[in-house]
DNA sequence: ACCTAAATAT
DNA sequence: TATATTTAGG
């Protein structure tokens, strides 16, 4: 337990590096890699694009935004990502827009999340009153919600905690990931305690990188999760029958 | 502009 | 039944 720490740089020297290392290339790399990683919904069609509002309000057709997108199916995987996002920012601060951003699932709308959040809150309420062993108002229709464990702090009004923004202790690199390498071969995802870091090979010693933005952080987390779960096909919005 | 709960629609 | 949309209010 102790020998590992000696090989790793100290937090003090690593974390300041993050700002200069992370921002431009990594964000880009994520966007490149993630194109085949999401957006493969129903039988391979791309999702209907939500085009930014055109200044063009008359002119015959403006179907871009009026286009009906397929009804979202909340798979257990998708719901789990929802729960993770909510847990990450704390249930107190969880609002649709933020949750949506943290989930970083292409095609997912704020309305999708708002609707789901509304239902989820009702589910939490009806769990409060059920307490432990028996009784419980959780019905047969709650399979989806029951598929992901509810973090303990969701239930009790105790304080506002946003799950993690602490400096984790260091553990062996890449030991927890089956595919430590992604992006362009030089960057690895490293899970340490509850936080995810990027690691990059510099000279001999690995350099740990703390993702700067919350958004990027969540993308790292989501990607690593996808790898961990051994899914070849990762989290789609509109699953086909093989789901 | 965004959030929320409730009602209603598909 | 599950999700979306609307409504009314903050």
From TrEMBL:
Residues 74-125 form the HTH myb-type domain. Keywords: Nucleus, Transcription, Transcription regulation. It holds the Pfam family Myb_DNA-binding. Residues 37-64 are annotated as: Disordered. SUPFAM superfamilies: Homeodomain-like. NCBIfam families: myb_SHAQKYF. This is HTH myb-type domain-containing protein. It comes from Brassica oleracea var. oleracea.
């Amino acid at each position: 337990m102790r020998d590992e720490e000696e090989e790793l740089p100290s937090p003090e020297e690593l974390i300041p590096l993050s700002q200069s290392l992370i921002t431009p290339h990594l964000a880009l790399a994520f966007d490149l890699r993630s194109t085949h990683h999401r957006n493969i919904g129903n039988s391979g069609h791309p999702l209907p694009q939500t085009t930014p509002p055109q200044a063009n309000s008359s002119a015959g057709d403006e179907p871009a935004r009026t286009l009906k997108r397929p009804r979202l199916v909340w798979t257990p995987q998708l719901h789990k990502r929802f729960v993770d996002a909510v847990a990450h920012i704390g249930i107190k601060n969880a609002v649709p827009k933020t949750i949506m951003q943290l989930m970083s699932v292409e095609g997912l709308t704020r309305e999708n999340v708002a609707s789901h959040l509304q239902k989820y809150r009702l589910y939490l309420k009806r769990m409060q009153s059920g307490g432990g062993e028996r009784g419980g108002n959780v019905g047969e229709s709650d399979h989806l919600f029951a598929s992901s464990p509810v973090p303990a702090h969701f239930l009790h009004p105790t304080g506002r905690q946003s799950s993690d923004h602490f400096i984790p202790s260091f553990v062996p690199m890449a030991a927890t990931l089956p595919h430590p390498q992604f992006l362009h071969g030089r960057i690895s995802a490293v899970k340490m305690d509850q936080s995810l870091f990027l690691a990059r090979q510099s000279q001999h010693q690995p350099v740990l990188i703390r993702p700067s933005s919350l958004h990027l952080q969540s993308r790292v987390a989501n990607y690593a999760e996808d790898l961990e779960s051994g899914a070849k096909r990762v989290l789609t919005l509109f699953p086909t029958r093989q789901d």
